[in-house]
Amino acid sequence: MAQVREACGVFGVYAPGVKVAPLVFDGLFSLQHRGQESAGMAVSDGETITVVKDMGLVTSVFTPRSLGSLPGHLGLGHVRYSTMGQSNWRNAQPVYRSHGDAGFALGHNGNLTNVAALEAEAGMLAGFAPSDSDLIGELAAQAFPDEPDSGAGGLEVALGAVLPLLEGAFSLALIDAAQLYAVRDPNGFRPLCLGRLEGTEGMGWVVASESPALATVGAIFEREIEPGELVIIGREGVRSLRPFAPERVAPKLCVFEFVYFARPDAELYGREVHAARRRMGERLATESPVEADLVIGVPDSGVPAAEGFAVRSGIPFGQGLVKNRYIGRTFIAPTAAARSDGVRRKLNPLRESVGGKRLVVIDDSIVRGTTTSQIVRVLREAGAREIHLRISSPPFRWPCFYGIDTPAREELLAAYSDPSAIAARLGADSVAYLSLEGLFATIGVAGTELCSACLTGEYPTPVPTATGTPAIFAVT
Ligand code: SF4
Q: What is the Å distance from ligand 1's center to 400 Cα?
């Protein structure tokens, strides 16, 4: 049960002759794990863009009736996760902006790192933009040409001017009245892929944060949108543009997409996420073996690595914790007491399985340690004799600036403590983490092509450091 939270999913579809609102709904539903605070969609019938968004899950924001009233063959959807205090209707997406008669809508996954400079560029006072996503919309509206020339539409021209100004993480999906746009920042921190939708009048196309969302609507995976690429989809098919300076383009997909964020059936860099998670567990068993009676995974994300650990170690795998799937998030509760209550309601031990046993407990990460200490406590109360924590990623020591909700460095359990101190703090008999080399090897991607800044402190781009601690402006 990861203690770091993913932050937003985007989905877009262009399908001539098809009413796309139900497809956008299905796509968003399959991306719900990336954000549960608000959901929204924008749909165009070729002339008018209609936006519907609200706080809550996809299934509570949209009903068959509301979907039925949304006309159009072009659509964009968004699910959002934000930090406390920024979770309000105003910041739900898509963001809608207009310039004269021309309107557009955008959905953003990621976090910009140069917000102050962009606010100045937009002529705003510092701190006045409600979110970084809103700021992108504002800048694009300001950059709209009064009379687009050379055949390019107004949004295409505006994006050409604005995208090079943006720094940090941004996987974007946008629509104007006629076209679908997909953008991935030059580092490709967050995933974004392209799929084909056959059987429509002319070819249909889909863009989505993760590949399983394509299959949900019957689209066939075409390829990942490349870092630094702007894809424009319309009547002329798919066009690919490169709006960023070539020297900025350096792939750095977030390594935690593999560890936890992405769905297990997602493919990233051509690799299935579930298989990578199993290999992480196998490698962990080799790197940090322990004598024990039973291997359990903390549901859900610790389970594939637990299976891998069990296979490699020869220790039986079993279920030791049951998760209540209907409890809300615990991570952003404002106090430690509230967070720990949430964990207790979320996880229950299976007493007959764990009682009297020496347990290997596999989880994907430890952030503050609040969740993990609760897990250790409930397992002890259920009679576990020994608890050996094995974590299928290296110690989480640095905050993320690229769209993941993490606390300040002082609150990160591993920032200043070694595994034995962490074990003592959590009440475990031992704690061991997967090595960084082990993580890269099990994913099967060179470390140079992955962001691992929260593990190493080596940020691929400049990050805001004015206060010495992360000044995350808005998490989208
Ligand atoms: S800092 Fe960590 S969580 Fe953030 S993008 Fe990089 S690897 Fe992912």
A: 5
CA torsion through residues 157, 162, 167, 168, sign: negative
Residue nearest ligand 1's atom 4 by CA: 400
Regarding whether 168 and 137 lie in a shared domain, the answer is yes
Please tell me which residue in 8, 254, 400, 451 is annotated as part of the active site: 8
Q: pLDDT tens, 421-472?
A: 999 999 999 999 999 999 999 999 999 999 999 999 999 999 986 443 443 3
The pLDDT of residue 301 = 85
pLDDT at 336: 56
In the reported structure, the alpha carbon of residue 397 is separated from the centroid of ligand 1 by a whole-number distance in angstroms of 11
Residue 335 has pLDDT above 90, yes or no: no
- Whether 254 is a known active-site residue: answer no
Ligand 1 atom nearest residue 450's Cα: 7
pLDDT score at 388: 98
Say how many Å lie between the CA of residue 257 and the centre of ligand 1.
9
Statement to judge: residues 221 and 283 lie in one domain: no
Give the position, in ligand 1's atom list, of the atom nearest the Cα of 406.
3
Concatenating the DSSP letter of every residue in 59-112 gives HHH--HHHHHT---SEEEEEEE---TTS-SGGG-SSEEEEETTEEEEEEEEEEE
Which domain covers residue 65, as residue numbers?
9-252
| CA atoms of 26 and 7, how far apart (whole Å) | 19
Percent of the chain's residues with pLDDT above 70: 89
Indicate whether 88 and 126 sit together in one domain.
yes
DSSP string covering 401-418: -SS-B---GGG-TTSS--
In angstroms, what is the span from residue 302 Cα to ligand 1's centroid?
19
Given pLDDT bands bounded at 50, 70 and 90, which one contains residue 149? low
User: Do 22 and 146 sit in the same domain of this protein?
Assistant: yes
Closest atom of ligand 1 to 190 CA is 5
